[in-house]
């Protein structure tokens, strides 16, 4: 597991999420076109085929009652933990809220930016076993904080059943409407609307390759969030780090998924060896040791560098989803970090604190996209309009420049609309 | 041209930008795959085929010298106008700059958001006749304000020639590198990099259907801005509006392009009639009357409503790119507006003021996408990382909740990484 920074293995790890989209594209385009044309009829056929669920019998919509019942059936201790997590997530995301501003540029001239919430949002929640109530909170609550009026959840009712913890989390988060649909067909329904499913302004939430591609293909018709790849952690550790802690954090990533990746970057070879032993020792005790072992063997690595500056360069180049800085002076070290989804500082901030609880969003850019994407946030559910208010005096003052510019682009009607107001 | 709000014609206008992507998709995917595999060799072949330019002879890169020479050859009066426009655009976009923040959530626990600039950005500038230096400023300057280190411009050298005003504007805006490439092949080169063209983090700028589709298909590999459709204006006018002014503003939109749309919404039928006459009278004097006439006849409309509240509803539903509020009390009326790219307030703020000069960006959401997209802004070139710093005391305090949540998701290694730190 211990490698040098120029080991070819690192490239294999970083490329693990690359998907050949071509082979899925036709299927996805056909599904989108069919749902767009035939609406609910198409949805019913596709849902029966892919999820084994007959919505003509069982119904497409999930009632508020079902969500409420699921919440009430939940264990009280879990309810309390989810309520506390919700309060933390709301509190952090309220700090991200943007407000309208206007300023006076010159006497009588105002410029600004009006901020409004999106009206409606669709949240995709995957089916299958690995379904996380925390994901429902993390996708829904920022929209709620932004002031979105209608939040629509879609989730496949594989074999007719929706995970009750998802329903409970949807109730707690305040989902307005829910539908038993999934896959590319659910994305198409949210993008174009059907008789049953309302069209929304933006679609967020992770999904399989069909869902990811469908989101990409409806972009422009609606807005979408980023494209999610397999999850990953990178831990920068110096000699102050506890090898057992670092090993535990690697495993917390590895247990997610065989494609998950856990990388340590350290300037301390002895520490590297201790971490490696600890990983294998702790691994044996895990219920998900099969998954975690495959992930560690294939996509785990401990990179030994000359110093911590080199470690920062590697970290910025990888641009990881979750970054832990297990170093003596994490606040100062953070100044060297440019690219990461979330940064966990110091010995007492393990990544699961952010997954569940602290408040910042756990929907984060993966696969190097932290070079240009941001965590999901309240800002994803607000939009802006520019504001321009000119006085007649200012229009007269600026007219000569605007005239020259319009004439240089040969747009005479543009020029006229200014001149007609200043020559009266 | 005068219609009621339920006229079928309105639907035709709003759907004018819809494009059947399917037929272009294969070509675009083939081009992307080829550039990704063969790099410069592919670029050279495609550029010769589509732009009639042999880059093996003429060179692919535009030198800084060429940009500087183009700037210096510009007329002094135009130089001054462009410099003033640049200063205004920078001044407005500086107000959009976001900064890193951290707050103390509980004693010893800090949460926050680190804001950093993207490292590199690609700007697509279309070829052809309708090339606007103002577009170069509007796409490049926000990236500059954000602190992007490398701004790469690509533009097709149709027949070997790049528009000198584009080069001059690139020089003024501070483009770092320029390349004589266009179409889907230029987008692929920016997304994946070739021996000559650097890979960037985000691609912005308008283009034809091949460029738009290529941007969509490389989304995820890089970030992109919105998908640009044909331009449009909507003017809400009450009896206080000057019909000649409103007519001039409709024409300033119509002269852009036969697909451009100019809509007036008014509660005053007499005003509607006066605007209509004035449009036809002013039209005759325009150099671009052929284009403007087609646009007005096909996609121009004056909608007469019962009152101004109804006008606001229609406006929000259309979610137009440029919205002028030519009403007696525009500041107050703006409170009713939810969806618009840019809002021009009152009698002295015609749309060309924003196109060229005032400061806010002229790259705006079109075709109803103002329901979810924002104007291009400094925020497009900054990204965020979450910051989480826990004290040991806080970790101990939150451990019971985190434990319950991790166990409910059957993620035992997640639980362990918290417990191992609190049980020592």
TrEMBL record, chains A, B:
Q: What is catalysed by this protein?
A: L-histidinol + 2 NAD(+) + H2O = L-histidine + 2 NADH + 3 H(+)
User: What's the protein name?
Assistant: Histidinol dehydrogenase
What organism, scientifically named, is this protein from? Denitrovibrio acetiphilus (strain DSM 12809 / NBRC 114555 / N2460)
Cofactor binding note: Binds 1 zinc ion per subunit.
Task: Sum up the protein's function in the record's words.
Answer: Catalyzes the sequential NAD-dependent oxidations of L-histidinol to L-histidinaldehyde and then to L-histidine.
Signal peptide location: none
GO MF terms listed in the record are: histidinol dehydrogenase activity; NAD binding; zinc ion binding
Pfam families the record matches: Histidinol_dh
Positions of the catalytic residues: 321-322
Pathway stated in the Swiss-Prot or TrEMBL entry: Amino-acid biosynthesis; L-histidine biosynthesis; L-histidine from 5-phospho-alpha-D-ribose 1-diphosphate: step 9/9
Instruction: Choose one Gene Ontology CC annotation of this protein and give it.
Output: cytosol
Which InterPro entries does the entry mention? Ald_DH/histidinol_DH (IPR016161), Histidinol_DH_CS (IPR001692), Histidinol_DH_monofunct (IPR022695), Hstdl_DH (IPR012131)
Q: Which Gene3D superfamilies match?
A: 1.20.5.1300, Nitrogenase molybdenum iron protein domain
Binding of NAD(+) occurs at 124, 185, 208
Q: Which Enzyme Commission number(s) are listed?
A: 1.1.1.23
Question: Per its UniProt entry, which superkingdom is the organism in?
Answer: Bacteria
Q: Which residues bind Zn(2+)?
A: 253, 256, 355, 414
Q: Which CDD domains match?
A: Histidinol_dh
Give the similarity note.
Belongs to the histidinol dehydrogenase family.
């Amino acid at each position: 597991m211990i490698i040098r920074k120029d080991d070819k293995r690192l490239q294999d790890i970083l490329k693990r999420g690359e998907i050949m989209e071509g082979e899925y594209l036709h299927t996805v385009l056909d599904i989108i076109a069919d749902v767009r044309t035939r609406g609910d009829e198409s949805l019913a056929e596709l849902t029966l085929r892919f999820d084994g669920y007959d919505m003509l019998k069982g119904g497409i919509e999930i009632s508020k009652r079902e969500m409420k019942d699921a919440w009430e059936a939940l264990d009280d201790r879990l309810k309390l933990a989810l309520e506390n997590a919700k309060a933390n997530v709301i509190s952090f995301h309220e700090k991200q809220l943007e407000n309208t501003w206007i300023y006076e540029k010159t006497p009588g001239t105002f410029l600004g930016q009006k901020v409004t919430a999106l009206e409606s949002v669709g949240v995709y929640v995957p089916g299958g076993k690995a379904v996380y109530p925390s994901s429902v909170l993390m996708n829904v609550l920022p929209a709620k904080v932004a002031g979105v009026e209608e939040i629509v959840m879609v989730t496949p009712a594989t074999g007719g059943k929706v995970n009750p913890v998802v329903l409970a989390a949807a109730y707690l988060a305040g989902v307005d409407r829910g539908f038993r649909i999934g896959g590319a067909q659910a994305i198409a329904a949210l993008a174009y609307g059907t008789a049953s499913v309302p069209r929304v302004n933006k679609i967020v939430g992770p999904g399989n390759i069909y869902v990811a591609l469908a989101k990409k293909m409806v972009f422009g018709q609606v807005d979408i969030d980023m494209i999610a790849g397999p999850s990953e952690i990178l831990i920068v550790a110096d000699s102050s780090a506890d090898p057992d802690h670092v090993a535990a954090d690697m495993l917390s990533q590895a247990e997610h998924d065989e494609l998950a990746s856990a990388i340590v970057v350290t300037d301390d070879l002895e520490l590297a060896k201790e971490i490696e032993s600890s990983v294998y020792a702790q691994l044996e005790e895990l219920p998900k040791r099969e998954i975690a072992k495959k992930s560690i063997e294939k996509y785990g690595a401990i990179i030994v560098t000359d110093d911590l500056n080199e470690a920062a360069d590697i970290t910025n180049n990888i641009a990881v989803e979750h970054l832990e800085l297990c170093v003596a002076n994490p606040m100062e070290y953070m100044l060297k970090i440019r690219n990461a989804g979330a940064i966990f500082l110091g010995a007492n901030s393990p990544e699961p604190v952010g997954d569940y609880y602290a408040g910042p969003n756990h929907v984060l850019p993966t696969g190097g996209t932290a070079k240009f994407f941001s965590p999901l946030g309240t800002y994803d559910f607000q939009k802006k309009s520019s504001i321009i208010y000119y006085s007649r005096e200012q229009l007269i003052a600026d007219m000569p420049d605007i005239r020259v510019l319009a004439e240089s682009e040969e747009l005479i009607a543009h020029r006229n609309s200014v001149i007609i107001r200043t020559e009266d």
